[in-house]
Amino acid sequence: MKTEIWDVRAYTTQLADYPRLSEIIETYRRGGLVALPTETVYGLGANALDESAVQKIYQAKGRPSDNPLIVHIYDSEQLKDFVTEIPEATEKLMEAFWPGPITFILPLKPGFLCNSVTGGLNSVAVRMPSHPVARELLKLVDLPIAAPSANLSGRPSPTTFEHVYHDLNGRIDGVIHSTQSEAGLESTVLDCRTFPYRVARPGTITRNMLNDILPNAVDEVRSEDMEKPIAPGMKYKHYAPETPIAIFENLEHSINALRYKEWSHIVFIVPKSFIPLLPEEAYTIILSDTEEDIQQANYNLYDALHKVDQLVDVEQAYIYGYPHHEEAEALRNRMCKAANYQYVEGEL
Ligand code: TXA
Ligand code: MG
Predict the structure, then answer these.
(1) Residues in Cβ contact with 172 at an 8 Å cutoff, skipping those fewer than 6 apart
(2) I need a labelling partner for 163 at 20 to 30 A (CA). Which of 75, 182, 183, 301 fits?
(3) pLDDT digits (tens, 9 = 90+) for 17-54
(4) Residue with CA at minimum distance from ligand 1 atom 18
(5) Phi, psi of 116 (to 5 degrees)
């Protein structure tokens, strides 16, 4: 299949003027797959009412069919078609954070969305993205759009057009070429079916931010500490580059522990401030200026994980784990999954 590229970079805030806009809209309407930018990561979108379109998402990604998709909307009014009720507390959080990087899991009203969007569950995950291109598209298409991250299943999520194109060229109808995703990590997923709510996947909207709006809305279980996955997707391998990767938490300790390694085959993914302390022969990829800059590290993480596999000499990656602050919970969650919970310190 030929994958179209729609370069909308000159039309970010006025998509309606993009000369090829109707091609994109038509592709969604006839059940095609179009990757679109969002403020979290790029998504692989299809009409959430069209069973065969949604099936194609699972095929293009190689995604297990029991891992349900997030439905993207532009207006809360759309919810009444496929959600049984919106609790008052959830509505308050929606007002505070939508449009934005948070997904709410709510009870499904059956009969509207096609079955494979929700993977046969009686709940649905829904999000209203804030990216101006995504918002305008959702409005013009006027359909709920099912969209997982636009990567091959198991691979790092895409934050740039190039990441999407690398994984999905030839497998989907088209990709929208827009800017790098601002948040850099997938949305916070909040299970709103029982109170207090549970974070099923941490994101850049943190537990504290939610509890600031609504005290005690979210329980204290840290997703890092959870043994049992509460979102179906959590049980699958995620975000992993092909190169083996391990986390380290103490630089000096780790360099000592690793002193017999051939540094020229190693890459360190670190804050810039660590570079003078690293072996000169090793490769480095910078995540942020200092270890305090969590937002910058979020923004750069997936690009760093994509770059690792492009360094042909590199046999092993070590990534700095960042401090255990609540602001860094989502960053650490994605790193733990990318590294399959391997710690340098744990190898000693
Ligand atoms: O930021 C994002 O959320 C991006 C952009 C494109 O919106 N999308 C994204 O989708 O990350 P995906 O499919 O890669 O991750 C969706 C997560 C999965 O862990 C899935 O298991 C969970 O949401 N999920 C979806 N529906 C669910 C449901 N009904 N109950 C529990 N978990 C659900
Ligand atoms: Mg994903």
Answers:
(1) 1, 3, 32, 33, 34, 35, 44, 60
(2) 75
(3) 999 999 999 999 999 999 999 999 999 999 999 999 99
(4) 233
(5) -75, -10
pLDDT of res. 227: 44
What residues form DSSP beta bridges with 285? 269
CA of 7 to the centre of ligand 1 (A): 26
Q: Under a CB-based contact definition with an 8 Å cutoff, are residues 107 and 83 in contact?
A: yes
The string over 114-130, giving b where at least 16 C-beta atoms fall within 10 Å of a residue's C-beta and e elsewhere, is bebbbbeeebbbbbbbb
User: From residue 230, how far is each of 148, 191, 197, 227 by CA, in Å?
Assistant: 17, 9, 12, 9
- 292 C-alpha to ligand 2 centroid (Å): 26
CA of 273 to the centre of ligand 2 (A): 31
Q: Are 285 and 271 in contact (CB under 8 A)?
A: no
Nearest Cα residue to 65 out of 113, 121, 116, 115: 116
Q: Which ligand is nearest to the CA of 183?
A: 1
Q: Which mutation among 34, 39, 189 tests ligand 1's pocket best, with the greatest number of atoms within 8 A of CB? A: 189
**Atom 15, ligand 1: residue with shortest CA distance:** 148
Residue 223 confidence (pLDDT):
55
Q: SS3 string of 139-206?
A: HHHCCCEECCECCCCCCCCCCCHHHHHHHHCCCCCEEEECCCCCCCCCCEEEECCCCCEEEEECCCCC
CB 119 within 8 A of CB 148: no
* Phi, psi at 201, each rounded to 5°: -150, 120
Query: Model pTM?
Result: 0.95
Kindly give the distance from the C-alpha atom of residue 273 to the centroid of ligand 1, in angstroms, as a whole number. Answer: 34
Contacts made by residues 288-294, CB under 8 angstroms, sequence distance 24+:
291/320, 291/322, 291/323, 294/322, 294/325, 294/327, 294/328, 294/331
